[in-house]
Design goal:
heterodimer, A: 326 residues, mainly alpha, B: mainly alpha, 5 helices
Chain lengths: 326, 119
């Protein structure tokens, strides 16, 4: 039954992708991207990737759409038609698609337990996590402990991208931004979105915090929590106007979150070295190595959550502030 | 049986087709935002391929339940890689969009051929 449902969702995914590319109205295209992400999240869930589904739903369907829309507000909403070149592109893409589909016949069948990808380190992770780290969610264990270096790198990429956006869009000093809070009114004069939205914001943030601190036991963790909390604040900004949101969470706090989160992650690694272990080897943090691992994971997940939340909100505010400049 | 075996590749076909739809948008559309949308479709297709590989028949999400013996879990490693890639993807996308916004301010257009003409 779930198999048929997966086929249906995947087919819908392809149809949505075609519609995204075909439509000339960029606004429609962006809204379809949101649906595309939601379908993708459902597919991830069917394929047993609960953590990834949560991330895709929060980031892909939520934040990506908002960032695309704020960029659209600063540029043009309609795409201009261009003559020529389409047939060549279609031909090239068609041939490539045929080649890739031909290549897929060499891939192991879906769900094949003998596939090479399941033979290498993955069984070791599944087998040893209860012994070394003793948290139920193996994805979190790999993310923050076994492959902590990777995640540190990813956090720095997010950090760098955030700094890049702030440089390119040139954020103004805080004292100037406070004066124009009256212009960007948000949805203040629409009663129903206002009332419903106000009810939702605290629960979204609460859910984000739950995702953050329950990440060791269920699907969740810093990346998802950061994205969900950022969504809650962005909803507040859309309802009350951007100035109000900046008054609730000022830009200095956001930058502090980004820098502090990345630093906290790195600092844990350095503390591990000072205490006689390897970089990001949390076992030395406590007399009991298993508890040390858990402590390290909680701290670095908090760092990841801070960095991601701060970065996404800074990016949103950078785009929003650009729109109200003369 | 033969049909079911073929359908085991369906995810990969969807991956190939979505990947190429994204590539088509990147190479044939002149609008810079449309190109970025194409790029994010391309990226999502790669995510789909990785997550397809993590599935194990009869498996469940890799969250170990205490007291349950003999449960098969899907492969957690591709999930970790993709989870972080999604968040990195949105940050880099925002960087691209920021550049597009600046291009629009400088040239007054986000159509590639018009920008090239203006130069």
């Amino acid at each position: 039954m779930i198999f048929v449902f997966a086929l249906f969702l995947l087919t819908l995914l392809v149809i949505t992708a075609i519609a995204i590319v075909r439509t000339e109205n960029l606004f429609v295209s962006v809204m379809l991207t949101s649906i595309f992400s939601l379908l993708m999240a459902a597919n991830f869930f069917i394929l047993d990737a609960a953590d990834v589904a949560l991330t895709e739903a929060a980031v892909g369907a939520g934040i990506t759409t908002v960032i695309f829309l704020s960029a659209l507000a600063l540029t043009a909403e309609r795409e201009k038609r261009r003559a020529g070149g389409q047939l060549i592109a279609l031909g090239a893409v068609g041939i490539l698609a045929a080649l890739i589909i031909y290549a897929t016949f060499d891939k192991p069948r879906l769900g094949d337990p003998e596939a090479p990808v399941h033979q290498h380190v993955a069984p070791w992770y599944l087998e040893k996590t209860p012994e070394y780290i003793d948290i139920p969610n193996v994805v979190t264990a790999i993310l923050s402990s076994y492959r902590g270096y990777d995640t540190l790198g990813e956090v720095f990429v997010v950090f760098t991208a955030c700094i890049g956006v702030l440089f390119i869009l040139g954020v103004r000093p805080p004292e100037q931004t406070a004066t124009r809070s009256a212009e960007s009114g948000g949805l203040r004069h629409h009663l129903i979105p206002q009332v419903v939205g106000r009810l939702l914001v605290p629960f979204i943030v609460l859910f984000g915090l739950y995702t953050q601190f329950h990440g060791e036991y269920g699907p969740g963790g810093g990346f998802q929590a950061g994205a969900i909390i950022a969504t809650g604040v962005i909803l507040y900004a859309l309802l009350e106007g951007e100035g109000e949101a900046l008054r609730a969470v000022p830009r200095s706090v956001l930058l502090g979150l980004v820098v502090g989160g990345a630093l906290l992650y790195g600092a844990v690694g350095v503390v591990c070295m000072l205490m006689g272990g390897a970089f990001l080897d949390y076992s030395v943090l406590s007399a009991d190595p298993v508890w040390g691992q858990q402590l390290g994971i909680i701290i670095i997940e908090a760092g990841v959550g801070m960095a991601v939340c701060g970065a996404l909100l800074s990016i949103f505010h950078a785009f929003a502030a650009r729109g109200t400049q003369p | 049986m033969k049909l079911l075996e073929l359908l085991g590749y369906y995810n990969y076909w969807v991956f190939a087709i979505t990947l190429m739809i994204g590539l088509y948008a990147v190479i044939s559309k002149a609008n810079l935002i449309k190109k970025l949308i194409g790029l994010s479709i391309f990226q999502s297709a790669v995510f789909l391929m990785y997550i397809t590989m993590d599935k194990v028949e009869g498996g469940t999400a890799p969250i170990i339940q205490a007291g349950v013996e003999g449960q098969i879990y899907s492969n957690p490693l591709p999930q970790v890689l993709i989870l972080t890639a999604i968040v990195v993807g949105v940050s880099t996308l925002a960087l691209g969009l920021a550049i597009v916004v600046r291009i629009n301010e400088r040239y007054g257009t986000i159509e590639e051929h018009e920008i090239l003409d203006a130069d």
